[in-house]
C-alpha cells in the first residue's frame, strides 16, 4: 500500500488539502506543501492522547503508522496519557493546547462539538480518500450502525468509532438458570429464589436505571446550554408510573439484590449470585464464580402493565477525534483512522479482548465465541446512546436508590408520580 501512495502523498494539491484544507491551515502548512511539491519530505509533528492501559498498544500502532507513511513525511507522534472518561474535561480546559488526536467516551461528543473541539470527519473526505482509498461512507459502512450513530452529531460525523463494548447485559450461571429462565425477569427471579440465590443489578445509577424507561419509549437529551431534557414523569408507550411499578415489582422479589455501582464483581465473587447485570469488565469475575456454568445473554424482558417488554440498555462507545485546532488536521485524521481501522481493532481484541465496532472484526469467529462480547453484541440491538447533562446524574441515582430500597409503594400512584416529578425537576434544572 505504501508504495502505491507515494506519488499521491507527494502531490502538492493533496498535501495542501491535508495540511491546510481541514480547518487547521496556516502559513507553516503552505510552506510544507510547497516543500512537498519540490520533492522534500515534510516534517509532521502530532500529539496523541489515549488511556493508560492502551499505551503499549498505541505505541505499536504509532510505529506502524510512521513506517507506512515514511516515504511521504518525517512523522513524529508524541503519545500522552488521558482517560477516555476524562478527555472532555481536559480538552475543554484549553482546546488549542489539547492533543491533535484524542480518544473519548461517546457521551462527550455533543459538548466537544459545541465547544469547537472536534474537526468534522465529513469535511476530510477528500483527504482520506487520497491517502487511504477510503471515503467517509466506507468508514461508516465498516463500523456498526450504532457506533456510527454515536460518532455523529447533527447529521455530521465527528469521530472515528474505536470500540463498542461499553454496555451491559446479563451474566448467569447455567447450572442454576436455563435459557428459558433468563428470558424474563419474572421467570429468572422465581427460579433464583427457588435455588436460594440472588440476581443483582445496580439501580442507584442513571446509567443503569434508565434502561427501564428507555424500554418504554422515554428519552433523555442534551440541550444546547448543557442542561438535560427528560420526560420520565409523563407518558410514552407507557406511563412513567407504570415503569416505576415494574421496577418495584422486580426489586420486591426476595431474590433481587440491589448492588452499588462498581460492586458487582465483589458480589459475584461472594457466591450469592446466579445472575447479574453488568458489562465486559466483570467477565473474569463471572467466569471464575460460575465455572462450567459461565454464560451470558441479552437482558431479559420485564412485565409492565400486563405486557412483556424487552429491556433496553445504554450502549457506550469509545471514539477517536481530531482537534479542530490541529495545525496538521489532515495528518491527524490519517492517524485517527489508522488507530481505529480494522487491523487496529483486531489488534485490540487480540491483545486486550476489547469489543470492536468494526463489522468484520465483530463478526469474526473469535469475537463471536467470546461469551461476554457475544452477549453484548446481542444486547446492542436494543441499545440506546445516552445523552444527558451534569444535573441528571445525582437525581437519577437518588431515584434509583429509592426504588431499590422499596421506599415507594407499588400501589401508591400519587407517591410514585411525586417522586418522578422530583426526579425530572432536578435532572432538568438549568446549568448554573
Automatic annotation (TrEMBL):
Keywords of the record: Signal, Transport
Pfam families linked: SBP_bac_8
Signal peptide range in chain numbering: 1-20
One GO biological process term: maltodextrin transmembrane transport
Gene Ontology molecular functions: maltose binding
GO CC annotations, alphabetized: ATP-binding cassette (ABC) transporter complex, substrate-binding subunit-containing
Key word Signal present: yes
Superkingdom assignment: Bacteria
Family: Belongs to the bacterial solute-binding protein 1 family.
Protein name: Extracellular solute-binding protein
Amino acid at each position: 500500500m505504501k508504495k502505491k501512495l507515494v506519488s499521491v502523498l507527494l502531490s502538492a494539491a493533496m498535501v495542501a488539502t491535508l495540511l491546510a484544507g481541514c480547518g487547521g491551515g496556516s502559513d507553516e502548512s503552505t510552506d510544507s506543501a510547497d516543500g512537498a511539491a519540490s520533492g522534500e519530505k515534510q516534517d509532521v509533528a502530532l500529539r496523541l492522547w489515549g488511556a493508560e492501559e492502551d499505551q503499549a498498544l498505541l505505541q505499536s500502532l504509532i510505529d506502524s503508522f510512521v513506517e507506512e507513511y515514511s516515504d511521504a513525511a518525517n512523522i513524529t507522534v508524541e503519545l500522552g496519557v488521558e482517560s477516555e472518561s476524562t478527555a472532555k474535561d481536559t480538552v475543554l480546559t484549553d482546546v488549542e493546547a489539547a492533543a491533535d488526536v484524542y480518544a473519548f467516551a461517546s457521551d462527550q461528543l455533543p459538548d466537544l462539538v459545541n465547544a469547537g473541539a472536534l474537526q468534522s470527519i465529513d469535511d476530510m473526505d477528500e483527504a482520506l480518500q487520497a491517502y487511504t482509498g477510503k471515503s467517509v461512507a466506507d468508514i461508516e459502512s465498516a463500523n456498526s450502525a450504532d457506533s456510527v450513530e454515536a460518532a455523529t452529531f447533527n447529521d455530521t460525523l465527528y469521530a472515528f468509532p474505536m470500540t463498542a463494548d461499553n454496555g451491559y447485559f446479563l451474566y448467569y450461571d447455567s447450572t442454576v438458570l436455563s435459557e428459558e429462565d433468563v428470558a424474563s425477569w419474572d421467570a429468572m427471579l422465581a427460579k433464583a429464589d427457588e435455588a436460594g440465590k440472588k440476581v443483582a443489578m445496580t439501580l442507584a445509577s442513571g446509567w443503569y436505571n434508565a434502561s427501564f424507561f428507555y424500554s418504554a419509549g422515554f428519552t433523555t437529551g442534551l440541550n444546547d446550554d448543557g442542561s438535560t431534557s427528560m420526560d420520565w414523569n409523563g407518558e410514552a408507550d407507557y406511563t412513567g408510573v407504570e415503569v416505576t411499578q415494574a421496577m418495584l415489582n422486580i426489586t420486591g422479589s426476595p431474590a433481587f439484590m440491589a448492588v452499588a455501582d462498581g460492586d458487582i464483581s465483589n458480589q459475584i465473587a461472594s457466591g450469592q449470585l446466579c445472575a447479574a447485570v453488568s458489562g465486559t469488565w466483570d467477565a473474569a469475575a463471572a467466569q471464575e464464580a460460575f465455572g462450567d456454568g459461565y454464560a451470558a445473554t441479552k437482558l431479559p424482558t420485564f412485565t409492565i402493565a400486563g405486557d412483556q417488554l424487552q429491556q433496553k440498555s445504554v450502549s457506550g462507545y469509545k471514539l477517536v477525534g481530531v482537534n479542530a485546532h490541529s495545525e496538521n488536521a489532515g495528518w491527524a485524521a490519517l492517524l485517527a483512522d489508522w488507530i481505529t481501522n480494522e487491523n487496529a481493532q483486531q489488534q485490540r481484541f487480540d491483545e486486550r479482548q476489547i469489543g470492536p465496532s468494526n463489522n468484520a472484526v465483530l463478526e469474526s469467529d473469535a469475537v463471536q465465541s467470546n461469551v461476554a462480547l457475544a452477549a453484548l453484541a446481542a444486547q446492542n440491538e436494543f441499545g440506546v446512546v445516552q445523552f444527558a447533562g451534569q444535573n441528571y446524574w445525582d437525581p437519577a441515582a437518588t431515584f434509583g436508590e429509592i426504588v431499590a430500597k422499596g421506599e415507594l409503594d407499588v400501589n401508591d400512584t400519587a407517591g410514585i408520580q411525586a417522586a418522578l416529578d422530583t426526579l425530572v425537576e432536578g435532572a432538568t434544572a438549568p446549568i448554573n
